[in-house]
Amino acid sequence: MACDKDCGKKCVGCLFDYETPVMLVISSKRVGAVFRLIQMLIIAYVIVYECWIQQNYQETDSVVSSVSTKVKGTAVTNTSVLGVHVWDVAEYIIPPQGENSFFVLTNMIVTPAQMQSRCPEVPGPTTVCLSDSDCRSGYSNVRGSGVQTGLCVNYSASVKTCEVLSWCPLENDTEIPEPALLEAAEDFTVLIKNSIHYPKFKFRKQNILPHINSTYLKNCTFNRKTDPECPIFRMGDMLEEAGEDFRNMAVKGGAMGILLDWTCDLDMKEQLCVPKYTFSRLDNKNSESDAAHGYNFRYAKYFKNSENTETRTLVKAYGIRFDVIVFGKAGKFSTVQAIIHIGATLSFLSLVNAVCDWFVLNFMEKKNYYKKHKFIHLDKMEDTDNSIGSTSYGTQ
Amino acid sequence: MACDKDCGKKCVGCLFDYETPVMLVISSKRVGAVFRLIQMLIIAYVIVYECWIQQNYQETDSVVSSVSTKVKGTAVTNTSVLGVHVWDVAEYIIPPQGENSFFVLTNMIVTPAQMQSRCPEVPGPTTVCLSDSDCRSGYSNVRGSGVQTGLCVNYSASVKTCEVLSWCPLENDTEIPEPALLEAAEDFTVLIKNSIHYPKFKFRKQNILPHINSTYLKNCTFNRKTDPECPIFRMGDMLEEAGEDFRNMAVKGGAMGILLDWTCDLDMKEQLCVPKYTFSRLDNKNSESDAAHGYNFRYAKYFKNSENTETRTLVKAYGIRFDVIVFGKAGKFSTVQAIIHIGATLSFLSLVNAVCDWFVLNFMEKKNYYKKHKFIHLDKMEDTDNSIGSTSYGTQ
Amino acid sequence: MACDKDCGKKCVGCLFDYETPVMLVISSKRVGAVFRLIQMLIIAYVIVYECWIQQNYQETDSVVSSVSTKVKGTAVTNTSVLGVHVWDVAEYIIPPQGENSFFVLTNMIVTPAQMQSRCPEVPGPTTVCLSDSDCRSGYSNVRGSGVQTGLCVNYSASVKTCEVLSWCPLENDTEIPEPALLEAAEDFTVLIKNSIHYPKFKFRKQNILPHINSTYLKNCTFNRKTDPECPIFRMGDMLEEAGEDFRNMAVKGGAMGILLDWTCDLDMKEQLCVPKYTFSRLDNKNSESDAAHGYNFRYAKYFKNSENTETRTLVKAYGIRFDVIVFGKAGKFSTVQAIIHIGATLSFLSLVNAVCDWFVLNFMEKKNYYKKHKFIHLDKMEDTDNSIGSTSYGTQ
């Protein structure tokens, strides 16, 4: 750059020309103060925000995790349909695998001894009929219970509905048992096993901390104050922490989140890297539309009777689905990261001059004097170079 | 910096020395234009790209979501094996829980009354035999159906195969029913309930919008034009939107994705934050290898016959797996973010001078004149300082 | 800026004033060398780190994937409870759907013919009793097997325990079969079908590569050396690669991860974008507490006996859960990205001068001479401008 076209071989020397701007030094407390202040602010920002809060000097990795859950507890129900019945894990946990998402049965409508046959539809706007002409043989309403046979038969003494081919007798889910049949589920406990892995840092840990022995594990229950490290959670407690009422939620069901936060600063001691447990309701409880309220699904147990024809017990299961959600971000010092981030924010310093110049040249009473020395106006000396070149500093 | 070694106590004053570069002002339309132009470009870039498109002034959070699904519909099949059979949700949805991934049975091969016993293998390259010597007792081929007994027995009048200990009779899945048995599944509907949560912004919402009442919900079906907010989707419609043919896919099965995009700008009105529904096939339909084509699995229903021996009905289930995939990113104005990003991009402005200098000093006819004033060559005045120091501006 | 207050209309012209700093050119090999060196370092950093390693010139997208799995294999067990029994996929894979997470049964404790009735608790610290007074009618211990009837009955000749209402007889899981009953699972294979999608780049691919034909697929087994592209994995091989012993793990179960890494540089040929398979144990094998060791759950098969009362076969299933974890990040050249990143790092160059100045003005023997010319001290010429303005360079 600093080399004329006609300098030929000398150009190699240019490589070693070092250019540095000529600086005007203004010794003014006022300006200096502003200048230093802004510099301080930026350096403070770099230290406080970039380093301390954001820890941008670290490289991060996100968690890889494996969860397994095991629910414990039994409940007894006494219903007309089932009589006295004891419910254990194998029966009320669906699916049974104990993965990170499990459903706890809390309420149900049981329809036993269903068989493939014909029966009158449950009365409703689309199913009530007066004569066979109101029913279309072979038609199956997507919101109905089966395929219409075309007949209009008595549902009750007063009501006639279209006959359908289906699993009969049909389920009647008009009223939900209240209080919930398995309210006792409030006392059930779930053991959560969670192993996490930060691949980039070869860091492995599990929520069952090394110092927890099996005897403690057999008897403890999580409690934020007394047992914050016990990985066994009582259903009722979890809902309470989430601000929900178990007895209330048990009736129509819902979805709960068990959140494990594994955010760790691996520059610290490993012992400090422990999961934070939080609980929150995932579905929307105050839903305006009943149709969208609660959590339930239907499943069936299939049997064959003595005549070898298939029968089934249909269960409309209401309950609480628990999702174990593991998340987190680990950070560790990284030279590269540090250089990039610190450097990037230092380049802010270049902005300081802009601000100060603006201040100096517009708001100081000596501003014109400063301008005169800061700026060298070329346009004022078109004619000859040498003479004016020098006097420019004098006269302007 | 601007302070000599021997300035001793004066040095404190240095703190308030403000240094600002001496500038050469070139009043030339040509240069000025280039200069301003580049400045404009960068500022435009900051505004358009950084702010408008990327919205880098926002801090973002990613969605936490909870999904539950409920399928409705019934279908009737009439097969030699099962006779007339009505299929309802409890039977054709696997698993029944109604989580974010559910499988709809559309086609099947049923093998009833299987029992632990011995029977000839299904003929195949590895199973056909001529004499017992071709079969190894106790050997179980990983791709076979059971454990060989060592005998070679008649599969049919013409073919002999190794006898195996297994659930007999063995399933014969050589031909798949076509058209699919549960083609009626095309009319099934699924209600998708999705509650989302942006923790950082304490923002909660569900796909069933507040103004949707339950009566509407009972009768509506999603339609991009007429009912874009109805969360009830007809199977056939979803596949159609994804450009698939239901009747075709129903035969061998496949995997579909129901995507909910919750990307929201929370600086806007909350009402504007609604999910966008899209549908796409997840598996590869035009798979070159049959083995990898479609979607199917086997499950069994277990019974005990009058002699109290276990029998089962094996079902090879073909069908469509629907995965509800919720994603999204919410943004909200953040002062810190704004400062960082705007500042960072402003530091680009420092590059403008580099470009302009290069232009001015190489492509303007007055370039040598400009150079003369821009650069002060020290090397040309090694001998004495005082004199040359001043004249340097004059002579060079 | 370079325009005086009183320049009125001329100010428009100011728009075209171009300001460029006046530079001091120091032709010194020493300084020049340092200067160029630092420049080189930064440019090298940009090229090597930003471009080559980090590929920051690319815009990235993360993978959307769909996985389905199919396990093959049969095993035979001969136990007192079940007699000779052949296990096939429909029986040992739970759940059967073949999703991205599946459980392979390797060991079990079977309790057949359970019925709702009364039986003595399994002896334990909380269940052993001497008289009825030790048992509370209606009380159900969360870690117990049922609801106490209030009676204290003989469990064995020597031990008395509280009687409970439950599924009787109770399971006795004190000793686990060793070696595992389904050790043969070591030879089972799983076919993994994985279709991935990079939405931003409209890029689709599946792990079953185009050139793989179905005949190969029918017979191959994954092997890092001989068959690195075969998507069929032998259980034993996977555990071996993960450094685990199958026979050992089969007894108490565990969790395995099958990781598919789809990281791709889409600027390269598409053929180069293939999944990398790795296997690792997800749960913590050397767990200090037995309670947290292995992987097991209970499920039941329900029957109705001739008297139409419900009976069930309870299975405590030990086994290996395989999670197929698909991850990856695709990158493609993007002009915008390139500009941002290169530009951002170039702004580092502004830091070079700071460093060099510091070097020049403090460590060169001619430093005072340089300072004299670099800095123009205004404070030394308060009185008159013209005269001193020029001589200032000479005298100071």
TrEMBL record, chains A, B, C:
Pfam families: P2X_receptor. GO terms for cellular component: plasma membrane; postsynapse. The keyword Transferase does not apply. It is found in: Cell membrane; Membrane. ATP binds at K70, V71, K72, T189, N296, F297, R298, K316. InterPro entries: P2X2_purnocptor, P2X_extracellular_dom_sf, P2X_purnocptor, P2X_receptor. Keywords: ATP-binding, Cell membrane, Disulfide bond, Glycoprotein, Ion channel, Ion transport, Ligand-gated ion channel, Membrane, Nucleotide-binding, Receptor, Transmembrane, Transmembrane helix, Transport. It is a multi-pass membrane protein. GO terms for biological process: calcium ion transmembrane transport; response to ATP. GO terms for molecular function: ATP binding; extracellularly ATP-gated monoatomic cation channel activity; purinergic nucleotide receptor activity. Belongs to the P2X receptor family. Homotrimer and heterotrimer; functional P2XRs are organized as homomeric and heteromeric trimers. Homotrimer. Forms heterotrimer with P2RX1. Forms heterotrimer with P2RX6. Forms heterotrimer with P2RX3. This is P2X purinoceptor. It comes from Pygocentrus nattereri.
